Amino acid sequence: DVSFVDFNNNINSVLPRFSRPANHSRIFYGVMFDAGSTGTRIHVYTFIQSNSELPVLDNEIFQSLKPGLSAYADSPKMATDGIRKLLKVAKKSVPRLEWKKTPVVLRATAGLRMLSAEKAQALLDQVQHVFDESPFLVPDNSVTIMNGTNEGILAWISVNFLTGHLSAAQNKKTVGILDLGGGSTQITFLPKLKKTIESVPVTDYIARFDIFNSTFELYTYSYLGNGLMAARLATLGALGAEGLEDRVFKSSCLPKKFMEDWSFGGLTYHLSGDPGSDTGFKPCYQEVLKVVKGVIHQPYELQDSNLFYAFSYYFDRAVDAGLIDGVQGGMLEVRDFKKKAKEVCSTMTKNPSVSPFLCMDMTYISCLLKDGFGFKESTVLQLTKTVNNVEASWTLGAVLDHFHSLKIH
Ligand SMILES: Nc1ccn([C@@H]2O[C@H](COP(=O)(O)OP(=O)(O)O)[C@@H](O)[C@H]2O)c(=O)n1
After folding, report:
1. Residues 200 and 128 in one domain
2. Torsion sign, CA atoms 406, 209, 230, 376
3. Which of 231, 236, 273, 351 can bridge 256 by disulfide, Cβ–Cβ 3.0-4.6 Å?
4. H/E element, 198
5. How many domains, in total, are found in the chain?
6. Buried/exposed 373-400: b ≥16 CB within 10 Å, e otherwise
């Protein structure tokens, strides 16, 4: 990675300050691709270098496309079109003179983690090739799969940076994050009690990073297979199943008459409702519970220690269910998800909602929060898509890490 110091030297040597207005030479750009399981996105960040340790974020340009890279697992060359399209956004957003010193980086998350190493590498190689041909700065290791710990920590850094909690790092008042992707889900927060750190099942649940000459010690974990799309498959008993052509996967979480082909991660599944069994919240909860029970660790402290920001599918489904406004977001109690899940599930056959999966998704989210992480019914979550027009995503933290080398360990 280009360290903070190298990057500044780079600016000074390529861009002599005397030839430009002083404030102009203090602007720099970072391009981060998020290769998620359900889509690929580009974030173009404009920063103003301030005199304090962290720069000021001036602006973000964001674009996304579907499906994710893993949909091209068996035809990796087809993945390049989308990457090229998104790179055009970077060319439009970054002034031509800055291209050569603007880093482009892609980090893949759960979609590629769930593929075989060979298939994932073939996709990364294709992206690397497109990057190498681009006019941007392509640092070492610019196209890789990111591990789940970094995904959680970087999202925590993003949200706390955007909400202003990192600049006041001394008093360590921060917010926790809940990220529900398609393939994996992350929980990250700053524990107040030693017991929380001491009582983790394995040391992987604790990670540290340095900023402002202090070390943050976070509780963080990424559960692969517990993202919303992977959880659908696990609920249906279809995750990792063979002979997909000849099988139909049924669930009490789907409308009785539902019958459809559904694709995720480059595979297609025949799905249907279960006319021969009870449907609705209760039987559905028992089904989704199997995906959560014995899998998700309950932190020693949770409810009283932090306000949690919940985004990605937590936000999207809360919007779909009519619980929050799609632009403003809002505060919800954990019990609101359960109440709404019951409502959606009881009416799904007579009164189909936006998606036939809404009962399953809302029930899974209720179960994950309560029987998974162990939140109380009354815990308030801040449902968020953007903070000051910037996407709540690990990508911002990843760019800050790139420029500042936050030494995550
Ligand atoms: N910038 C972004 C990126 C993803 N998302 C949401 O994240 C969810 C999917 O996450 P993902 O495809 O990255 O899945 P993972 O690979 O993280 O498991 C969807 O709800 C997207 O709408 C978002 O809201 N904003």
Report:
1. no
2. negative
3. 273
4. helix 194-198
5. 2
6. bebeeebebbbbbbbeebbbbbbbbbbb
Number of Cβ within 10 Å of residue 216's Cβ equals: 21
The contacts of residue 195 (CB under 8 Å, 6+ apart) are: 300, 301
Helices assigned H by DSSP within 199-265: 228-235
Assigned domain for 221 exists: yes
The predicted model scores a pTM of 0.92
Same domain, 172 and 238: yes
Q: Ligand 1: does its nearest atom lie under 6 Å from the Cβ of 27?
A: no
Q: Are residues 273 and 357 in contact, defined by beta-carbon separation less than 8 angstroms?
A: no
Kindly state whether residues 75 and 218 are assigned to the same domain: no
- Residue 224, domain CATH: 3.30.420.150
Report whether residue 227 contacts ligand 1, using a CB cutoff of 6 Å.
yes
Residues 228 and 326 occupy one common structural domain: yes
To test the ligand 1 pocket, which listed residue (31, 33, 38) has its Cβ within 8 A of the most ligand atoms? Answer: 38
Q: Which sequence positions are flagged as catalytic?
A: 151
Segment 235-261, tens digit of pLDDT: 999 999 999 999 999 999 999 999 999
**Nearest to residue 393, comparing CAs of 106, 115, 41, 129?**
41
- Taking each helix axis from N to C end, the angle separating 313-320 and 358-367, rounded to the nearest 10 degrees, works out to 130
Q: How many CA atoms lie within 13 A of 253 on its CB side?
A: 26
Q: What number is the ipTM of this complex?
A: 0.96
Is 288 domain-assigned? yes
Residue 37 lies in a domain: yes
Asked whether the beta carbons of 239 and 201 are under 8 A apart, the reply is no
Q: Which atom of ligand 1 is nearest to the CA of 313?
A: 20
185 is in an annotated binding site: yes
Span 41-58, pLDDT tens digits: 999 999 999 877 789 999
Q: Report whether residue 38 contacts ligand 1, using a CB cutoff of 6 Å.
A: yes
Range of the domain at 44: 4-146
State whether the beta carbon of 329 lies less than 6 angstroms from ligand 1.
Answer: no
Q: Residue 212: which residues within 8 A CB-CB, separation 6 or more? A: 53, 166, 169, 170
User: Do the Cβ atoms of 90 and 136 come closer than 8 Å?
Assistant: yes
In a domain, 233, yes or no: yes
User: What ranges make up the beta strands (E) of 101-204?
Assistant: 104-108, 143-145, 176-180, 184-189
Using a 10 angstrom Cβ sphere, with 0-12 exposed, 13-18 middle and 19 or more buried, the burial of residue 60 is buried
